[in-house]
Write a structure and sequence with these properties.
The complex is a heterotrimer. Chain A is mainly α. Chain A has 13 helices and no strands. Chain A has a domain of 188 residues: MetI-like (MetI-like fold). The relative contact order of chain A is 0.14. Chain B is globular, with a radius of gyration of 24 Å. In chain B, helix 3 crosses helix 14 and helix 4 packs across helix 8. By secondary structure, chain C is an alpha/beta fold. In chain C, helix 10 packs across helix 17, helix 11 packs across helix 12 and helix 16 packs across helix 18. The chains are: A mainly alpha, B mainly alpha, C alpha/beta. Chains in contact: A-B, A-C, B-C. At the A-B interface, helix 1, helix 2, helix 4, helix 5 and helix 6 of A face helix 1, helix 4, helix 5, helix 6 and helix 7 of B.
């Protein structure tokens, strides 16, 4: 949603923790002094100030709001204890947004599988490699609103997809793609796969291509087949990236907004966390309850990330 | 035999994937060139009667405010990206080149922040932005774009480490101060990192919908994504105009992609593999 | 040493500049200079839900006329908002909600004073304007309606005549039969269109309350009941009809792909039989019919299919009320706009509505309807209970001005996830809980 989820993941910051063994640039002969010592703090004032203001203060406020009945307008807030949390888990409409995000989460596995398949294919010799690569990646660069509108046009009754199905004799598959409550979320998740596969694909491809070619040559001398190469060389080498994609998939699936908002406006059981909290906080003036939802979401993200670390320990990529 | 089969399968799957990726886009382009009557009457696959019918594009530009949308996006982009670069580089410089009390605490703060998805705090952030009096102002977006971008800080940290310290030291001996070192040695040597950040973040800003949607309702200040979203209202029954609006937002990014392909791929992979 | 000091100072200065730049940025939020002259002048911002009139230039004409009358007014900025209720409600969390705006339906009476400038004494203004009660609190008015509405159903006369239907249906059952007849006569049409996706058109259903029973005190009584969705009460009739019409597949097949602008076109061209909308919708539908090559005569208006004592009733009331942002810096000009808009713009005539002015005339297009239907003016809440309805409504979680619960009724009617009775039971339970919470 915000910039942390739009771009590629950052490089490993592990080395930023490097031991402080290197000499200070204020070499010998230049007296330390308090001014000298103040320099790094001055450089960090604005960045850390913004970090505190726009990340930590909101988090702290969010916890505070979540135990009040604040409506976002009144000057006073009343402490209501855990009422908001009880409300979240007793109203099925609130629980439902987490259920909806499961569709997107599961879809991200399909997305990674597709991306991995094409990354593997294109890491070997293929004609028109750049063309295929460009086509697969480009949708990721398109504006989310544009994607929503493109697929509204493509999936509407009698639109592109229906026309294809009718022309190929698959009439029986024609559905109300967003209108049928049983498949609406599947449709939206599929659009999300269309949008994000390119990113996974390029990340995987980059990782595969950074494998030293001598390893392949050695494998080929040993008579290893393509499948063997994939299983024993490619897969292990991109494991860190897969782990990273997994974490992105979690936060991504919980922060889905544009596609359902543009395509169904959250109707027909497709309401996501962001759509609901916005509505809750601003249309219904229940900032307290919306904050409690956010706290629950944050807890889920942290727990899943922690579990993922425990299950698949990462040595190469260490996000923390 | 199996080799030939595998090769065929390879190309069949690539072709299939390309069709899936391109078909929705092609149909939007077709639609954008049709007249209103034609759009309703013809099959979505029917090519437009006239390939030079750009009246929908004219409508999108004149009545849909797309031009203003581009201008607003550019303003926000330039301000936010400059801020991001300065902030990211300054942070990286301070953290990498100095040892000081609280350094690991600062580092920890930035690392911990990566675990907090931006969406979770939106409601609380809204109150802060409003408290600063920035609601319905471009500054809200600029501040959020540059203030919450921890990814860029990591990228800069990576690259600052790679700049030899001997350069700083030589400059110090010549009497340069920290600011001069920062602006004349560190920043110029960070060009690859800056390119990466400009690309990743530039695409992010161009495509960002949620922040302007929430913070910037004024039609005069709308960037391109909310300008396009606004089409849904008055042009709701004119899909040919909506289609033109969609194509207009895609074209600039397509052109950039074609020219900067290599850098764009590198931007997204270097972030991931470094 | 000297050099060194200078450098440190430079660093401090640069940080200070950066911080200053940020704080300076902070004060740049709200634009416009304060107008204290007491005469209309300067610039104002007007928020409107009529994106279509912004788009087609009607508002440009309004602005031109207004600035001709008040040459000191330099700019009237009109912002058309598609999701009016939703977006304005968000903006009301801040100060930036324009100078003149239509008061969103979800603002409760006791909140009016927090957000809107008092326009005058209710008793005084009532000599001139109608339907002020809704947006008044404790004897003070905060908004003046732009036009008066009666609540009926807008339909395509050709479609109904083609199916051989000439009389207004008098019961929901008869209405459903009629819709089935429309469908039988032309399977290609949607007999009734809910405009599910845009959502806000569904709030129109709420305003048949009081019209079904012809009871001007319906809303005031509703707060004394635990079960407004019980047999025969207005809400049961209204939402029962909604459930039935969807369950019997007499509405648009895919409600998630609806669009307001498109619905106008579809009704105008006879692809839709009927929509449940206030009389404000008539001119827009007529326009759509004319644009599609038909005539304004193709659009008719009928009462809600229910009679009390053998007579149709319809509630009459204000459409959106224009109010002034309490933190506006140019209230004088804002007030001038409201007065001008109601007296001189010709808006209410052009909208074929009832004039908000006491001495306004009934437009010809509604004359027929008014002949057959008894209009009901809802009585104001008794003193001290002005916000009771809103309080119960909010506490219940239903919020009758929010389309969400009716969207859910449509979901359930399509999927069968809840039966009609379950829907009513849930609504009654929520309402009773709301009453209990508020202590009504």
């Amino acid at each position: 949603m915000t910039t942390t989820t739009t771009g590629a993941p950052g490089p490993s910051p592990a080395d930023a923790d490097a031991p402080a063994a290197r000499p200070s640039p204020s070499g010998p002969g230049r007296g330390g002094g308090w001014r000298q010592r103040a320099v790094p703090y001055l450089f960090l004032t604005v960045p850390v100030g913004l970090l505190l203001l726009l990340t930590y203060l909101p988090v702290a406020n969010m916890f505070w709001y979540s135990v009040t009945d604040w409506d976002g307008l009144a000057r006073s807030k009343e402490f209501v204890g855990l009422d908001n949390y009880v409300e979240i888990f007793t109203d099925p409409d609130n629980v439902r947004v987490f259920y909806v995000s499961l569709y997107y989460f599961l879809a991200s596995f399909a997305q990674m599988a597709i991306a991995l398949y094409f990354a593997t294919i294109l890491s070997f010799r293929v004609r028109l490699k750049n063309l295929w690569k460009g086509i697969l990646f480009f949708p990721y660069l398109i504006n989310g609103v544009a994607i929503g509108l493109i697929f509204l046009n493509f999936l509407k009754p009698g639109g592109g997809l229906d026309t294809v199905l009718l022309a190929t004799g698959l009439d029986s598959l024609v559905r109300q793609w967003t209108g049928d409550p049983d498949i609406a979320n599947v449709t939206l998740a599929a659009v999300s796969v269309w949008r994000y596969t390119g990113l996974n694909f390029v990340m995987f491809l980059g990782a595969i291509q950074s494998i030293n070619s001598e390893i392949y040559e050695a494998a080929e001398i040993d008579g290893a087949g393509r499948w063997h190469e994939f299983w024993h060389i490619i897969l292990p080498s991109i494991r860190p990236i897969v782990g990273l994609s997994f974490i992105l998939a979690i936060s991504g699936s919980l922060s889905v907004f544009e596609i359902p908002y543009v395509m169904t406006n959250g109707g027909n059981g497709t309401e996501t966390f962001v759509i609901r909290t916005i509505w809750m906080a601003f249309n219904r003036n229940m900032v307290g309850l919306a904050s409690a939802m956010a706290v629950v979401l944050l807890a889920i993200v942290l727990v899943v990330t922690w579990v993922q670390r425990r299950v698949v320990p990462e040595e190469e990529v260490d996000l923390t | 035999m199996t080799r030939a089969l595998a090769a065929t399968g390879k190309y069949v799957s690539l072709t299939l994937a390309s069709v899936v990726m391109l078909l929705p886009l092609v149909l939007i382009v077709f639609g954008s060139l049709k007249t209103g009557q034609e759009f309703l009457a013809t099959n979505p696959f029917a090519p437009p009667e006239s390939w030079t019918n750009v009246s929908n594009y004219a409508t999108a530009f004149t009545r849909g405010g797309m031009l203003r949308g581009f201008a607003n996006t550019v303003v926000i982009f330039v301000a936010a990206i400059s801020g991001t670069i300065l902030i990211g580089a300054a942070t990286a410089y301070a953290l990498d080149r100095f040892r000081f009390r609280g350094r690991s605490a600062v580092l920890g703060l930035f690392l911990l922040a990566t675990l907090v998805p931006g969406v979770t705090t939106q409601v609380a952030t809204f109150q802060i932005v409003n408290g600063l009096g920035l609601y319905n102002s471009r500054w809200a977006l600029i501040l959020l774009f540059m203030g919450t971008d921890i990814i860029s800080i990591y990228i800069f940290l990576q690259f600052v480490r790679a700049i030899p310290r001997s350069l700083d030291e030589a400059a110090t001996i010549e009497g340069a101060g920290h600011l001069r070192i920062f602006f004349q040695i560190i920043l110029p040597n960070l060009k690859p990192a800056i390119a990466t950040v400009v690309i990743i973040k530039g695409i992010g800003i161009y495509n960002e919908f949620f922040l302007p949607f929430l913070y910037l309702p004024d039609p005069d200040l709308r960037p391109i994504s909310t300008a396009l979203f606004a089409f849904k209202g008055p042009f709701g029954s004119q899909w040919e105009v909506i289609s033109a609006g969609v194509v207009i937002t895609i074209v600039p990014i397509l052109v950039l992609f074609l020219f900067l392909q290599r850098y764009i791929y590198n931007g997204f992979t270097s972030g991931a593999t470094k | 040493m000297f050099l060194h000091q200078r450098r440190a100072r430079l660093a401090t200065a640069s940080t200070a500049v950066a911080v200053f730049a940020l704080t300076a940025a902070c004060s740049g939020g709200s634009g416009g200079e304060e107008n204290t002259s007491g005469e209309p002048g300067g610039s104002i911002t007007v928020l409107t839900w009529r994106t279509d009139l912004v788009e087609d230039g009607t508002f440009d004409d309004y602005v031109e006329q207004f600035t001709t009358k008040y040459p000191a007014v330099t700019e009237v900025k009109v912002e058309g908002i598609t999701d009016y209720e939703g977006e304005v409600k968000t903006r009301m969390s801040t100060d930036a909600y324009g100078d003149v705006l239509a008061i969103p339906g979800s603002v409760t009476p006791d909140q009016l004073g927090d957000f809107f400038e008092p326009l005058g004494d209710l008793a005084e203004l009532e000599k001139e304007y109608r339907w002020l009660n809704d947006k008044s609190f404790e004897g003070t008015s905060y908004g003046i309606p732009v036009v008066g509405n009666v609540q009926g159903l807008v339909y395509n006369t050709k479609v109904w005549e083609a199916a051989g239907l000439t009389d207004f249906p008098t019961t929901p059952e008869e209405f459903l039969e009629d819709l089935a007849a429309l469908k039988a006569a032309d399977p290609g049409i949607d007999p009734l269109y809910t405009n599910y996706k845009d959502g806000w058109p569904l709030t129109a259903w709420e305003y048949y309350r009081g019209g079904v029973s012809g009871d001007p005190d319906y809303v005031n009584e509703m707060v004394t009941w635990d079960d407004p969705w019980a047999d025969g009460r207005d809400h049961e009739v209204i939402d029962g009809l909604l459930y039935d019409v969807v369950a019997q597949k007499l509405t648009e097949a895919d409600p998630t792909t609806t669009n307001w602008e498109q619905s106008k076109q579809l009704l105008g061209t006879g692809k839709i039989g009927v929509m449940l909308l206030g009389s404000w919708a008539i001119p827009q539908m007529q326009q759509a019919a004319v644009d599609a090559g038909g005539s304004a005569e193709d659009i008719g208006y009928m009462p809600f299919p229910a009679q009390a004592n053998g007579t149709f009733h319809a509630t009459a009331g204000g459409d959106y009320n224009l109010g002034i942002n309490v933190s506006s810096k140019n209230k004088v000009t804002a007030r001038a706009w409201i007065d001008w808009f109601n007296h001189e713009s010709g808006y209410s005539e052009s909208q074929v509505g009832l004039s908000p002015l006491i001495d306004g005339a009934t437009p010809a297009a509604l004359a027929d309807f008014v002949d057959q239907v008894e209009l009901v003016q809802m009585n104001p809440a008794p003193e001290g209970k002005e916000s009771l309805f809103a309080d119960v409504d909010t506490a219940s979680g239903i919020v009758t001005t929010d389309p969400k619960f009716r969207q859910k009724i449509i979901d359930d009617a399509r999927s069968g996830a809840r039966t009609k009775q379950q829907v009513f039971d849930d609504l009654n339970e929520a309402w009773a809980k709301g009453r209990a919470d508020v202590g009504a």
